[in-house]
Amino acid sequence: MQRKKLVEEMKHVYFQKMTANGYHEIEEQIATLQKQRPAKIEQLKAARALGDLSENTEYSTAKRELRHLESRLRYLNKQLQYAQIITPADDSHVDLGTRVTLQFEDDDAQATYQIVGKQEADLAKQKITFDSPLGAALMHHQAGDTVTVQAPQSAYQVKIIRVQLGD
Questions:
Q1: In DSSP terms, which residues pair with 33 in a beta bridge?
Q2: Beta 110-116 vs 98-104: how paired, if at all?
């Protein structure tokens, strides 16, 4: 009875789509934070040994830093727990994990972006999320297609020049 209820509840869980590379980046962040944790605990112990806790700023600071670290670890572990790794098929259609070279119709400028999950988005590294206005417009199209992007301020068109598997 309990198992059946759990299975039913899991049908409604929203899994976070991400690339394998994004999944590994989160694993690396977790490993780094876990290495820092013992040092944070030692700082807290040392600050506590200084005496009166009500006026001990070192203790308050160490406690806050440890709480922040543990909160970040819980958040990242949840990201992995509810991750759905998407591996793009090699069929030249835009999908999560592919690199897309675009030509903007209004000024003929070209740009290359990788389509990634929400957690991986970083415009400085040319990584855009699949549910951003540009990412959503590109999804499931192929090289040669011209798509209209509905941005918050206006609409514009881009032509897909090339689609390739990401790194």
A1: none
A2: antiparallel
How far apart are the C-alpha atoms of 73 and 124, rounded to whole Å? 25
Give the pLDDT confidence score for residue 72 in this predicted structure.
94
**pLDDT given at position 36:** 93
CA 55/CA 153 separation, integer angstroms = 52
pLDDT tops 80 at residue 56: no
CA-based angle 146:89:78, to the nearest 5? 105
Longest dimension (CA), the chain: 70
The answer to whether residues 28 and 91 touch, using CB atoms and an 8 Å cutoff, is no
d(CA 36, CA 113): 34
Residues 6+ apart with CB under 8 A from 135: 113, 115, 128, 129
How high is the pLDDT of residue 2?
A: 65
pLDDT tens column, 112-153: 898 888 888 888 889 888 888 888 888 888 888 888 888 888
SS3 129: strand
Structure tokens that stand for 99 in this block: 């690199």
**End-to-end distance of the chain based on CA atoms, in angstroms?**
45
**Token output for 3:** 């198992």
| Measured distance CA(134)–CA(148) in Å, rounded | 9
